[in-house]
Amino acid sequence: MASEDVKSSESAVSTIVNLAEEAKLAREGVKAPSYAILSICKSFVAGGVAGGVSRTAVAPLERLKILLQVQNPHSIKYNGTIQGLKYIWRTEGFRGLFKGNGTNCARIVPNSAVKFFSYEQASKGILYLYQRQTGNVDAQLTPLLRLGAGACAGIIAMSATYPMDMVRGRLTVQTENSPYQYRGMFHALSTVLRQEGPRALYKGWLPSVIGVIPYVGLNFAVYESLKDWLIKSKPFGLVEDSELSVTTRLACGAAAGTVGQTVAYPLDVIRRRMQMVGWKDAASVVTGDGRNKAPLEYAGMFDAFRKTVRHEGFGALYKGLVPNSVKVVPSIAIAFVTYEGVKDILGVEIRISD
Question: Which of 32, 44, 124, 226 could form a disulfide with 113 if both were Cys (CB 3.0 to 4.6 A apart)?
Fold first, then answer.
């Protein structure tokens, strides 16, 4: 009798467990798609916030960098980082330091969101293929594979938002004395479309694609590889409980930004100069106030390189490098730390290479 009661109890418990498991599976089956969508949305939000915060923090240096890149060599107005910032403050006031930042944020928020999300998805896909190829389910992404994932993310994000980057460059360059004023991003987009055609919105796209491969690729590869190395080797007591401090992550991001921007900088200069081509009422900083107007017509990327070096020397390919270096180190560092911080707050798993 007792044994029958025991069997009956075991049967009841087994039935309850089975029903609970079935209910759990049913719930997971229903919620899986919505959870995936929520995770994607959180990833986009984290990337967008990271981009907006990091770019606004260094907006004055970003504007000065572009002005140095495209100013007419025969009519120098901006000569160095400190002098250039002082000149902008004196001639345009505080608002002048942030000119074009609204358009930049409108571009960088979706750009950063797409870039970070694309990097995560590309990393997962590449890791899956790598594990299948090696037959090792515990294999991790190598620095080279991270470089490839970062390059894919950079190309996708840059191509998706390039028209906004093109008009942002022109909005950033124009001053109060420019012969024709773009009133904002949408006005600039419509004006360029009407006067120069849709292809004009992608001027400088090729050097951007070539430049984004080492720039974004190295950013992600160096950042992730440094983090992994620090966590595994734990040098100088920088790691506690397999976690890096915010300061250490900022340093990793700064190192990543320095390497990426130094390699890709000449292509950024050429991209900006190609974006100015065809601007009928170009800003005075580009035309040199009409004096000794520099050649603004380029047949393509290689022609732009050739004319820039021939007329201004090899150093012209690194115009604006100093303010860009001062800008890009905190910008990239802030972007990575903000991204990971927001994802932590939203409760999203950020370790994509495990």
Answer: 44
